[in-house]
Every structure is written in C-alpha cells, then in structure tokens.
Design goal:
5-stranded antiparallel sheet, alpha/beta, 10 helices, 12 strands, 13% strand
C-alpha cells in the first residue's frame, strides 16, 4: 500500500474512533443475543448435518428458525436454502399475503429495481398486477405529510435500504414512528419490511417494534459471509403460515424443505454476523470519510444516521465508475484478475456493473460494489468482513481516483 495513502486512511480511522467504539458496542450486544438464542434452542453438533429428501421432521431446521425468531423479536420464521434471494423472499411474502382486488402501498417510494417486475410497475409475466392487485407509492422519507392510506390497504411495504437510489436508509427510530402512524391510519394493513443490508446495524430489529413481516437474504448480513445461499422471512405466525404456502406449496407449507449442506453455514453465519457487520459498518464509514475528503459526493454523510451497510459515491464520469469497479475487483480473493464490465442483468432496465469476488457468489457482505451504468454514475460500496481487506480496497480506489482526475 502506498505510504501516503496508508497515512491518509489511518488519520481517517483515528477521527472515526468514537463511531467505531459505538459500532463495537452494538456488535457486543447483538452477539450476546445470538449466543442466548443458540443456548435457548439447544444447538448441538448433530444439528449441523441437515436433512435430505422432503425434510419432514427436520428438528435442526426448526431450531434454526426459532433462533431467527428470538433474534428478530418475532413469533415464527422461515429460514430456507430454497429461498434464492431477497427478491425471492419478498415475492413469496407478497404472493402469500395478497389476493385479487387487494392493494399494496410502498411508503418508501419506488422499490428496488428487481421488484418492479414482481409488482408489475414494469410489465412482466406473473406479476402481482396480472392477478388484479393494485399498487401505489409515496415516500415518507421526504414527505412526512404524504398519505395514501385512506383507501383500503392490505400491505404497507417499507424498504429500509435505499437500493440503487442515493437516499436515507430507514432507521429503527423512524420505522417505529411510521409503524405507530400506520396502526392509526390503516389498522387492518400488514406491515412488511424489507430488512436487507440492515440486520445487526442496530441493537433491535423491526420485529421488536411490531413490524408484521420482516424479510432478508442470507448472502447479505445475517449469513455472516459464510452462508452459501438462502433467505429468511420472519414475523407473526398467522402471516408466516400463509407465506409458507408460497415458499413450498399449499397443504404442506413449512413442513417440507431439506437442509442438507445448509445448516452448518447458516448457523455459523448468524453466529459470525454481528462481528462481520461491525467490520462492514466501519468499512462504510471509512470509505465515506476518505472519499468525501477527496471531494466526492457521498451518502450517507458520516454525521447522518445510518441503518444499513451501503454507501453511495457519485463519481460523475463513466471512466471513474469503471475504474472504481476495477479497483475493487483487483483486491478480490476470487477472480481478482477479472475485469468487471457493465452487463444486462435480469430485473434491471439499465446495464449493471458488479465488482468483487468473494467466497460466496454475489455476497454483498464481503467487500464488493455495484451500480447502474448511467449518469451520474453512482457506485454503491458495501461489505468488508475484515478491516484489513477494507483498507486495501479503499487504498486501491483512492489510487485510481486520484490518478484519473
């Protein structure tokens, strides 16, 4: 690492020491919660093996799901390798809870790109709109007076992380206030929270403040950079039972679903998650601080509240955008010699640049970045499950950006 860049990064870390101490305290609290959950359900070495076939009577799977319910403050959970992604988990929840004629309202504006075709915002085969389900959106992050809840609403949807749109993530305090408001304005509505990128960033989770359904991916935060696949859906028992019929099939619901090859990584992942998120958060603050000093527009600012591990950097030119991706790819342990290029990925209108090669394909808890190949060329950096790797990645980014003014 260049000595001048190393010193620049070291100075930024020193300035962030108080924030880093707060992050460590949250990680300590969350690890204590995880260990308590493991002890409560009585995890043993035999639970690491998993089941085969239909997975009927999989007691170890039941223990894993009880651990998630304990950690996330909910009644019931589905934690399954059959759930392929966060988008898949959300889709299962929406189709499990909504019926023809129902209405869904997003109060955090346009959802993540891959959900647009699920909902039917962009025309797609099999979308909710094809089943006669209506959709509206507002954004309480920017207009707290906006309200579309007068008409009967079945689901109020909240996406905590901002996705491919730089903007504020939804903190636990904000979410708590919103839930209280929804209970008054639309008491019949089911509150569904997309918790991706936000797990273990705070001391409590949406279930602790009465969110009805909370959803995420194991190749993001709760997998700890270890779980190879899977997603979770946790919440009130009556809703989880309905959603289970879409994860598997009506009539069998949560009873089936083998876990062979999944249990060890899922359990190890949730155990490591608080520490991994601690490093990812420190990495996020460090990237924010250094790149802001270099004159780039970053979000969130280090002085703002943060609810996720994602930082957006507005690069302003395609050349910087591509070079940023190359820098992160070059320090990746897997495919470090590859050259990332924007490509057409299913679920997105614009080409996407993905950079980073971790031990779990697509893991966004390992150091990685991605962004849409369009003006103003915003890169989203996330992950960094150890600070040494985060510093190395940051040093390479600083080097290419300062060499390409």
């Amino acid at each position: 690492m260049n000595a001048k860049i190393r010193e620049f990064i070291k100075e930024a870390e020193t300035e962030l020491s108080e924030i880093f101490d707060e992050i460590d305290e949250i990680a300590d609290n969350n690890l204590e919660k995880v260990i308590a959950a493991f002890n409560l359900v009585g995890i043993s070495s035999g639970d690491l093996a998993g089941s085969s076939g239909y997975g009927l009577g999989d007691i170890s799977r039941d223990k894993l799901e009880r651990i998630y319910s304990y950690i996330f403050g909910t009644e019931s959970s589905l934690v399954r390798p059959q759930i392929a992604s966060g988008t898949h988990a959300i889709t299962c929840a929406l189709f499990g809870l909504l019926r023809p004629g129902d209405r869904m309202v997003s109060i955090t504006g346009r959802p993540y790109d891959t959900l647009e075709e699920v909902i039917g915002i962009r025309k797609s085969v099999g979308s909710l709109s094809e089943f006669g389900i209506s959709y509206s959106e507002i954004d309480w992050r920017y207009d707290s007076n906006a309200d579309l809840l007068d008409d009967p609403t079945k689901i109020v949807y909240i996406q905590r992380s901002s996705g491919y749109r730089p903007g504020p993530s939804v903190t636990i305090d904000e979410l708590s206030n919103w839930i209280s408001r929804i209970r008054v304005r639309a008491p019949q509505a089911i509150i569904v929270v997309d918790n991706c990128y936000c797990e273990f960033v705070s001391n409590i989770e949406p279930g602790h403040i009465e969110a009805d359904v909370v959803i995420g991916s194991l190749i993001k935060n709760p997998g700890g950079g270890i779980a190879k696949t899977g997603g979770y859906i946790t919440g009130k028992k009556e809703f989880i039972e309905k959603i289970a019929t879409r994860v598997t099939a009506p009539g069998v619901g949560a009873e089936i679903g083998a876990t062979w090859g999944f249990m060890e990584s899922a359990l190890m992942g949730i155990y490591h998650a608080p520490s991994a998120i601690s490093s990812a958060l420190k990495s996020a603050f460090l990237f924010s601080s250094c790149l802001k000093k270099l004159g780039f527009k970053i979000y969130p600012d280090i002085t703002q509240g943060r609810a996720d591990i994602v930082t957006s950097i507005e690069l302003g030119s395609r050349e910087k955008f591509i070079e940023f991706g190359k820098a992160i790819q070059s320090v990746s342990p897997i495919d470090g010699n590859a050259t990332p290029e924007p490509f057409a990925q299913g679920g997105y209108e614009s080409d996407v640049l993905l950079a980073g090669g971790g031990f779990v394909a697509g893991s966004t808890l390992e150091l990685s970045c991605d962004g849409l190949d369009e003006d103003p060329f915003i890169m989203y950096i996330q992950g960094g499950i150890n600070m040494n790797h985060a510093r190395l990645g940051l040093s390479k980014v600083i080097e290419v950006l300062t060499n390409n003014p």
